[in-house]
Write a structure and sequence with these properties.
This is Transposase. Residues 2-86 form the Transposase IS4-like domain. The chain is an all-alpha fold and 87 residues long. The protein has 4 helices and no strands. The protein has one domain (5-82).
Length: 87
């Protein structure tokens, strides 16, 4: 599951884990480490070591999220008001 920093909460990480997915969520600026062995700690470590999330985003393909968002935006623009999740 890929999401922006707004999803960097314990509740979101727990919900993602319960669903059996892997969280690809960049830590918020100035984030602290969580309990030992938590997968999020790798992203926090990269942030602290390099001063930003840039290395982590490149290493784990986080940019694919924005590419998919752009693609969906284009589809919605092309289809106009005809695309809806509701009947």
């Amino acid at each position: 599951m890929s999401g922006d920093g707004a999803y960097d909460t314990r509740a979101c990480h727990t919900a993602i884990k319960i669903k059996g997915a892997i969280a690809l969520v960049p830590p918020r600026e100035g984030a602290a480490f969580w309990e030992r062995g938590h997968p999020r700690n790798l992203a926090v470590g990269c942030q602290k070591l390099y001063g930003s999330n840039k290395y982590w985003k490149e290493r784990y393909g986080y940019h694919k999220r924005s590419l998919s968002e752009t693609a969906m935006y284009r589809v919605k623009q092309l289809l106009g008001g005809r695309l809806s999740l509701r009947k």
